[in-house]
Amino acid sequence: MIEKIKFVLKERGARGLLAAGVNFCLARLLGIRIVKDTSIAGHSTARKVFAKCSLSYSEDGYYFLEPMPTVDDLNAYYSSLYWDSRAGKSYGVNTRDIVHFEILKEFLSDILVEGKVFMNFGAGHGGISNLLWLEGMDIVNVEPSLLPQFYMERWTTVEDISKLESNSVDLIYGSHSLEHVQDIDEFKAEIKSIKAQRLCVLGSSEC
Fold it and tell me: Is 173 helix (H, G, I), strand (E, B) or coil?
């Protein structure tokens, strides 16, 4: 319970923690909720887009929504709620970035060297991109939101992976990003066309 409280406090702040606490007490004591849910799941656009979807698992190891929302629905969701919201995230480097950096350094030290090209798929706040930039790597962020529009002298940012040329990167990295890919088969084809030395999707067996 203490760890859950810490998580809510970190993700939603003191106001979000208070709202969650009130909701918890009312639900336990009276079976009702009167404090509005401020999370993404409680947003009307999110409910409209995802209410009819269920989570399925593919034969080649990916979870996916079925039926998949249309491109227009997803664009409405991302543009109105997700892409340009900081959603409790901080700029710079967080603990997860450091952990992933250490994993990459341990297993891919031959690629993480000056002059090699590191592609961060779904760069978000750009955390690990900063760490690899400090290693002397050339950084390419693939990110449709406005979050990485800082330190522009450090890297190149494109909105879509299809903008990258074949043989243009040495390592493709992604963390908490594949859930935003609408067509996994198309994504895998695009990854193959880039022909990086290694593909590393943290949290999966692809690294």
Answer: strand
